[in-house]
Write a structure and sequence with these properties.
The chain is α+β, with helices and mostly antiparallel strands. Helices cover about 35% and strands about 25% of the residues. It folds into two domains: about 120 residues, Jelly Rolls (Sandwich), CATH 2.60.120; about 90 residues, Winged helix-like DNA-binding domain superfamily/Winged helix DNA-binding domain (Arc Repressor Mutant, subunit A, Orthogonal Bundle), CATH 1.10.10.10. The strands form three sheets. A four-stranded antiparallel sheet has the order 1-8-3-6. Strands 2-7-4-5 form a four-stranded antiparallel sheet. The protein has a four-stranded antiparallel sheet with strand order 9-10-12-11. The longest helix has 28 residues.
């Protein structure tokens, strides 16, 4: 049993299901529950002044989210059919004998999320379209919550979602995938599966390496 699971054992919990595109919580809401992705994928997103959507992070099985102290600053939606485990935030912090450890666990999760969002901003600001897609796929290769079998990677989110997350037009993302397939980085299998070439991605383990790939 992991430290996270051990801390959560004695706190009342339940599970819910959300269909693709279904809202989990909205920006501006007062937080009551926090969540962990059990299966599927969740997207956190914000709205621009023109009402346009910007996805800021994807969450995969094992990821905690929604443990805001003040009003929600972003919304959460299911990027595909997903199962979520829920806890009441107040019970998490006040009803456990391990309050200090739980607080540290949530702070560590928040720090990890912040680092990922900072890397995302750096990427979409400074890298080309092809480099952004390679960076994204390379990150999925090392994501522990995303199933990978026989060299095949299943994308639980839509191409539109990925394009939005990377700051690309959908047609640009499709073109880059075709270019990467021609360069033998990957092979597309249907709409949501990719067979990646590990040898190609080994050369781009860090964003700084992308300029040399």
């Amino acid at each position: 049993m992991s430290q996270q699971e051990d801390l959560l054992t004695n706190v009342r919990t339940w599970t819910v299901s959300r269909k693709r595109g279904q809202l989990i919580f909205d920006a501006g809401e007062t937080p009551r529950n926090m969540y962990r992705v059990e299966s599927g994928c969740v997207r956190l997103q914000v709205r621009g002044l023109q009402g346009d959507r910007q996805i800021v992070v994807f969450l995969f099985p094992g990821d905690l989210f929604g443990y805001d102290i003040e009003d929600r600053i972003c919304s959460a939606e299911a990027a595909c059919d997903s199962a979520l485990r829920c806890w009441i935030v107040a019970a998490m912090l006040n009803g456990t004998d391990n309050r200090a450890k739980m607080t540290i666990t949530l702070l560590e999760a928040a720090q990890h999320r912040f680092a990922g969002m900072a890397a995302h901003i750096e990427t979409v600001t400074h890298l080309s379209a092809k480099e952004r897609v390679i960076w994204f796929l390379n990150g999925l290769l090392s994501c522990p919550g995303l199933p990978k079998a026989d060299g095949r990677l299943h994308l639980p989110m839509s191409h539109m979602d990925i394009a939005n997350y990377l700051g690309l037009a959908p047609e640009t993302f499709s073109r880059v995938l075709a270019d990467l397939e021609a360069d033998q980085y990957l092979r597309r299998v249907g709409r949501h599966d990719l067979e990646l070439t590990p040898e190609a991605f080994l050369r781009v383990r860090h964003s700084a390496d992308l300029k040399q790939s």
